[in-house]
Amino acid sequence: MTSPPATAQHLRDLARLRRVRDRIDRDHAQPLDVEELARGVHMSAGHLSREFRAAYGESPYSYLMTRRIERAMALLRRGDLSVTEVCFAVGCSSLGTFSTRFTELVGMPPSAYRARAAGATAGMPPCVAKQVTRPVRNPVRNPDRNPVRNREAPAVQPSVA
Prior knowledge:
Layout: H1 4-27, H2 34-40, H3 45-56, H4 60-78, H5 83-89, H6 95-106, H7 110-117, H8 126-133, E1 135-141, E2 148-152
Antiparallel strand pairs: 1-2
C-alpha cells in the first residue's frame, strides 16, 4: 500500500508530466530537447524520460516526433507545400531524419504519402480526417530496430444507421 506522502508525490509527478506533454503538443514546431523539457519541470533528463515512458508508453522524444509527423501528414494532405517545406514547418531540422522517421511511423515516404493522400480526405470534415489518418500503434515489431511501429489507421466508410 502506498503511503499518503508517496501518493501525493506521485500525483505531483503526473501533473509535471502532463505539463511536459502539453508543452510538446503546443510547441512541437519549436526546437525542443529532453534536457530543456526536464529543466522546465525541475527534473533530470533521465528521470523525465523514465517517468514519461512509464506514464505514456513512449519517450518524450518519440512523443514529440509523433506529434510532428501527425502535423506533417496534415500539411502533406493539403498539398500546397513541398516535403522540404513541411519538414521545416513541423520543427525538424534534417530532411533525412524527418523522412526516415516519417517512413517508420506511417509506412511510406512523405512524397509517396503526399501523392496518395492528395484526394483521400476530400469532402471529409477535418476532425474526421484527422482521426482516420492518425498514426496508430502496430503490434508488429520492426526486427531491425525493435521499436513498435506505427501505421495509419485504415479508412473506414461511415455508415448511417
